[in-house]
Design the sequence.
């Protein structure tokens, strides 16, 4: 059975993905995510307080943005073919995300290498970028994934 994600052997250095799914972030996304992760930061939940900040209103929880960015990338890259995420590095949020922003995601393969301890697997390092409707990068990270090789 062919899985939606790509196997380790199907990735190559410099490969780019402009993911088809775009997502408008809602107030509910932000409030629910902040609540279920026990993040009481007023900047995410208290509009009156947030109006007094440099942002002029509530901003979206950055960990929601990170999860959404990686989540959108999964279908076209790693769905069903990843063994595990090994880590996220160089996570950055250069611009805030506001309720109503629509994000699109780009991914690029930065590195591929054989696993030394698992001959049927390899490691792929991705760069992910979330870009809002104004063309601004609002989140980026490197993600290392342990991937299955194509079955023989």
Sequence:
């Amino acid at each position: 059975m062919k899985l939606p994600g790509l196997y380790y052997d199907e990735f190559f250095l410099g490969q780019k993905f402009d993911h088809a799914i775009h997502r408008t972030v809602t107030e509910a996304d932000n409030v629910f995510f902040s609540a279920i992760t026990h993040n009481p930061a007023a900047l995410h939940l208290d509009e009156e307080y947030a109006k007094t900040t440099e942002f002029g209103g509530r901003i979206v929880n950055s960990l929601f943005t990170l999860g959404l960015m990686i989540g959108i990338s999964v279908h076209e890259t790693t769905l069903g073919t990843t063994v595990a995420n090994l880590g996220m590095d160089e996570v950055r949020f250069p611009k805030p995300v506001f309720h109503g922003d629509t994000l699109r995601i780009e991914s690029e393969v930065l590195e591929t290498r054989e696993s030394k301890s698992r001959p049927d697997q390899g490691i792929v390092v991705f760069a992910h970028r979330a870009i809002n409707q104004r063309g601004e990068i609002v989140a980026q990270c490197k993600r290392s994934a342990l991937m299955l090789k194509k079955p023989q």
User: Anything to note?
Assistant: The two ends are 13 Å apart (CA to CA). The first strand starts at residue 16 and ends at 18.
